[in-house]
Amino acid sequence: MPAPLPLGNDVVDLGSACNRSSATNPHYVNRVLADPELELLDIADDRHLAFWALWAAKEAAYKALTKDQPELAFIHRHFVVESETPLTSSEHRTTATGQVCHGRQKIPVLWEWTPDWIHCITTSSAEPARYSVGTIRKLGSNASFVKMQQSGNLSDESIAARLLALSLLAQSGWNDVQVDRPAIGQHRGPPRIMQSGNVLANLQISLSHDGRFAAAAVACPAVNLGSSQPPDQIIKTLGV
Question: Going by CATH, does the domain composed of 125-240 fall within 3.30.70?
Answer without folding.
Answer: no
